[in-house]
């Protein structure tokens, strides 16, 4: 069994050793430009096109992250990058769900308890108690009800919040009001006081966070984007903030990363920025899942996390 690996940021030797430890029978190597030797499996994050193109013998391509949008974008721009019929697999959870819970909950509580406003008051040296939000009129809406969206929703329910989810197809989550399909999107947005975006990045969801969507939220709503920068129309958010339709926004992802120094988000008093750290890939958990899925494929069975390339997740 031959496995090729590529990640522009991770320590390759740690991954090569970790996969070898879990799959002793495998020959694992870091892919280098010009390497066209046989491979049964590919582990990659934002791989160059030549790494995967024409590898018809592959049994599986593993994306080293929860999202597969970078690989699918290459396929759209250069058809044939993904060998036809070869399954593409994403990481499912592997510690990301808990990280997303922690991130979302921390910023939900920050806005719910108005700590963001108290921070601004501190900068002005003002001692000014604010009327607290009440849970009965602080409905939280989550765009996306996959593994991560469901996990975040369940954690917020535990804290007593009214939570609703919207997804492409109907989902059932205990204690969560579910909406599905384009025809129910407006109903989902109306009454939502804090919106969390956890949608997959697909052509259908690009630029979904725009002025038309913001207009349906409760005036003075909050936004937390922890999915992809491509979901947000940045100028529309700045306008919604200036008009008061959006009270504040927390952004972990951006169209251009790192965020350019001249970008107005840096200086906006109602925008909080984090550098794409809401949930990072945890190598040990990720390697456990990848190795288990390879064993499943070798046994002729269906692994977890197979991506529908047409849908994009």
UniProtKB/TrEMBL annotation:
Sequence ranges assigned to domain D-isomer specific 2-hydroxyacid dehydrogenase NAD-binding in this UniProt record? 106-278
Where does the UniProt annotation place the signal sequence?
A: none
* Active-site residues, as the UniProt record annotates them: 228, 276
Which cell locations does it reside in?
Answer: Cytoplasm
Q: What is its EC number?
A: 1.1.1.79, 1.1.1.81
Q: GO CC terms for this protein? A: cytoplasm
Is the keyword Protein biosynthesis assigned to this protein? Answer: no
- What is an example of a Pfam family matching this protein? 2-Hacid_dh_C
Top-tier EC class: oxidoreductase
Provide this UniProt record's keywords sorted from A to Z: Cytoplasm, NAD, NADP, Oxidoreductase, Pyruvate
What GO annotations for molecular function exist for this entry? glyoxylate reductase (NADPH) activity; hydroxypyruvate reductase [NAD(P)H] activity; NAD binding
What is the stated purpose of this protein?
Catalyzes the NADPH-dependent reduction of glyoxylate and hydroxypyruvate into glycolate and glycerate, respectively.
Family named by the database record? Belongs to the D-isomer specific 2-hydroxyacid dehydrogenase family. GhrA subfamily.
**Which HAMAP family does UniProt cross-reference here?**
2_Hacid_dh_C_GhrA
Q: What is this protein called?
A: Glyoxylate/hydroxypyruvate reductase A
Species whose genome carries this gene: Serratia plymuthica
**Name of the coding gene:** ghrA
């Amino acid at each position: 069994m031959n496995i090729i690996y590529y990640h522009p940021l991770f320590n390759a030797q740690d991954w090569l050793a970790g996969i070898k430890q879990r799959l002793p029978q495998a020959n694992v190597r870091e892919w280098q430009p010009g390497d066209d030797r046989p491979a049964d499996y590919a582990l990659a994050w934002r791989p160059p096109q030549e790494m995967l193109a024409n590898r018809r013998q592959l049994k599986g391509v593993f994306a080293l992250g929860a999202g597969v949008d970078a690989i699918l974008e290459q396929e759209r721009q250069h058809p044939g990058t993904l060998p036809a019929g070869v399954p593409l697999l994403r990481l499912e959870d592997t510690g990301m769900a808990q990280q997303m819970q922690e991130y979302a909950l921390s910023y939900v509580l920050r806005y719910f308890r108005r700590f963001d406003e108290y921070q601004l008051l501190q900068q002005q040296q003002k001692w000014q108690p604010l009327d607290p939000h009440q849970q009965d009129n602080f409905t939280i809406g989550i765009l996306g009800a996959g593994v991560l969206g469901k996990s975040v929703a369940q954690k917020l329910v535990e804290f007593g919040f009214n939570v609703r989810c919207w997804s492409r197809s109907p989902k059932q989550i205990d204690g969560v009001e579910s909406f599905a399909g384009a025809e129910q999107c407006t109903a989902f947005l109306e009454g939502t006081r804090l919106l969390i975006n956890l949608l997959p990045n697909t052509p259908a969801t690009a630029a979904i966070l725009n002025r038309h969507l913001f207009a349906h939220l409760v005036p003075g709503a909050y936004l937390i984007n922890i999915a992809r920068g491509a979901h947000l129309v940045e100028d529309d958010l700045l306008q919604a903030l200036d008009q008061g339709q959006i009270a504040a926004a927390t952004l972990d992802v951006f169209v251009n990363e790192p965020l350019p120094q001249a970008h107005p988000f840096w200086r906006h008093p109602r925008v909080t920025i984090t550098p794409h750290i809401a949930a990072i890939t945890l190598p040990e958990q990720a390697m456990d899942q990848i190795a288990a899925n390879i064993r499943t494929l070798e046994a002729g069975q269906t692994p977890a996390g197979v991506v529908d390339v047409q849908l994009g997740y």
